[in-house]
Amino acid sequence: MIATIASHQVLSLRRQRVFLALLATLLTMTALAGVLGWSSHHTIVRVYDEAVKLLASTGKPAPPNPFLLKPTLSLLSNMVVYIPLIGALLALILGHLSIVDDETNGIGRLVFSRQISRTNYVLGKITSAAGVLAVVLAASLLVSITSLLVVNHTVAGADVGRLSLFYALSWLYLMVFALIGMVAVLMTRRRSIALLAAMGAWLVITFVIPQFTSGLRPAQSLNPITDPASTSQTFFKITSKLRPYSVVEQYKQASGRILQTATSEPLASTIQRVLPIAGFAILLALLTIRLVQRHDFSRSATSE
Amino acid sequence: MNDSTNRIITLARHEYRAAVRSRILLVLLGIVVTVTAVSVYIASVDYAGKLADYQAYRAAAQANGLDRIAPSPLAALSLLRGAMEYLEIIGAVIAIALGYLTVSRERANRTLPLIRSRPVTSGELATGSLLGAVGLFATLVAVTAFVGVICVGIIGHDWINATQALKLLLGYIAAIVYMGAFYCLGAIATAKSRVAANGLMIALGIWLIVVLVLPQIGDTMDADNQVPGGLFKALGLNHDGEVQILTHFTTYERIRTWTEEASLAKHFERFAFGMTDVKERYRPYSLPWLLGQTRNDIGWLVAYSAALFAGLRHSFRRQPTIPQGGTQ
Fold it and tell me: From the list A222, A235, A304, which residue is nearest B42 (CB)?
């Protein structure tokens, strides 16, 4: 039954072209990261050539090769910003549509007139969101590998492994937002308020919590690598204790370690960064299951 | 006051009252005010320490009879940088949400055809709605400004003077114009969509590109940002060497500038940062010079806002004047 509900949901998303829109947006975003990476590579080569000429004319030795300062996968470092910004918003909309259409179209009432348990229903919905995100991110992985091949002409096996790990982490992160989209629908009465409430949660997670725990201004949150404020201020002595639970910071830090674009750290520390994201996703999944058990599907939410 | 002005004021009051009754909007407003207070508090604590150090240095220099004492490198207004960034990002989302609610509320209550059946022109409807929204943005901006200035004065131990207050006022007026533009965008996208929530998604997609993606692309393309710590520093080049090499990158730099110029958010940010002394190079100059330097940004801000207001008028003109069936 879970598979039937999940496949119905995927079919519905395909017919509404939401699946296509998600795929197109995420692939464009990955391609954009690749183009920016290529542009960065090209710029470094040109600046290096000009620098060699300039220094030679003044009798100075050639500078060190800047590519030694740049990790291979830094080419795709913008993805670490695009996933929490664009990807998370798309995941919110995916989760929102998974539940809201059943309310507004009255499908919820029809479904529960049949012999379907609410747990199977919600597990089917979660499985469909997980499946759609997995397919979309797998396609992004392929685009990323293609970008690396175009720019570097070769891709090491270890780099493919690291990229796969990064996209697996991104899937987990996006699942958090897909579940927030579902929870918001189940906790509100109107379609529009559900979407705005989910957006509010996204703003809090992406911009507000990092400001409280690490003193990161919004513009700093747009950088792939961010340095948290020191804990010398009394304020941060208290709030920095919550830093491990700031999922966006943990996602960026863990991604930086996986892609080797940030200072390395022991594997155990990176795993510790992933645990709060996984824990948050599990808690939200349990909350979604609980809310569906109590939800009154006999009333249709207003489409506005 | 003539009849048209009366109708516009009535519509503006209606818009303002309806907005403050929306709990979700109030929550979003609460988030902006709280986070602004935290941002300014953090910056002010840091500033107070630096100001005390400078005053100690100044006192010691005077005690030793030094004639030339270095001026303070500190700028109290720059502590409001976080406040401006929050208006740039979250303020724009609130404006879109308000624009969306303006149309979706009237549609859901089926009062839009009722309003259109009255002797109210689409221009009056657009102006009245926008004025109501601007009133709400002005309230939000006044609260954040009050919180910011009080934090800087009490925690940072530096009260702003009249000139700084004027610059801050101009920065906040720009913030209101900027949010007004996004209000129009939210209302236009919703009015043009059959299902209001789809309009909201389209407006948020545009917000994402204009506010977050385009400025980030511009920063990423900066030649010096290509390696950690700066590419030119890594190549052992000083400022003169950097300038000399960048002469070979005029087309590249032009593309980068165009990418940034396409973003309304970047224009607001440049003007607001100029007014709040965020950029050190602007600090020594007077207000007229600053206004001259940022005239391009002022022009774009006004042009974008005027174009979106024209779009809002056009969208309201095309709204149905008779009740539609279904859920509209």
Answer: A235
